[in-house]
Amino acid sequence: QVQLVESGGGLVQPGGSLRLSCVAAGLTFSDYYMTWFRQAPGKERELIAHISRAGGTTNYPQSVQGRFTISRDNVKNTVYLQMNSLKPQDTAVYYCNAQSTSGVEFWGQGTQVTVSS
């Protein structure tokens, strides 16, 4: 059974940092592209960071470029999202997603990030 388990969310003040982790089990982690999404109340789910299977290529939208960094450890079956200079508009539930080259995909349950003073 495939499981993706996110952790590291919480309450942080504007300008602060958080590091999210997503541990994968039940799949060959290095075969999967990994992506972080987020969804704020009343908004659509938004892709915020993507990393290739070996970790050599990353992509970010303009909204988080320069503030967020995605990385992965294929030995620990874990993908990370380092978030710096957090803003109130970064408040959302953050999800990790694993997708194979054949399109099979899995989702984690999400972790809440709240940026507020």
Account of the protein in words:
- By secondary structure, the chain is an all-beta fold.
- Helix content is 0%, strand content 50%.
- It contains no helices and eleven strands.
- The strands form two sheets. Strands 2, 4, 5, 6, 9, 10 and 11 form a seven-stranded mixed β-sheet that branches. It has a four-stranded antiparallel β-sheet with strand order 1-3-8-7, with no helix packed on it.
- The radius of gyration is 13 Å and the shape is globular.
- The model has no long low-confidence stretch (mean pLDDT 97).
Draw up the topology in text.
Layout: E1 3-7, E2 10-12, E3 18-25, E4 33-39, E5 46-51, E6 58-59, E7 68-73, E8 78-83, E9 92-99, E10 105-107, E11 111-115
Parallel strand pairs: 2-11
Antiparallel strand pairs: 1-3, 3-8, 4-5, 4-9, 5-6, 7-8, 9-10, 9-11
Please report the number of helical segments: 0
- Report the major sheet: 7 strands, mixed
Structural class: mainly beta
Number of strands: 11
Q: Radius of gyration, Cα only, in angstroms?
A: 13 Å
**Which geometry do the CA atoms define?**
globular
Strand content: over 45%
Summarize this structure briefly.
With 117 residues, the chain is mostly beta strands. The protein is 0% helix and 50% strand. The termini are far apart.
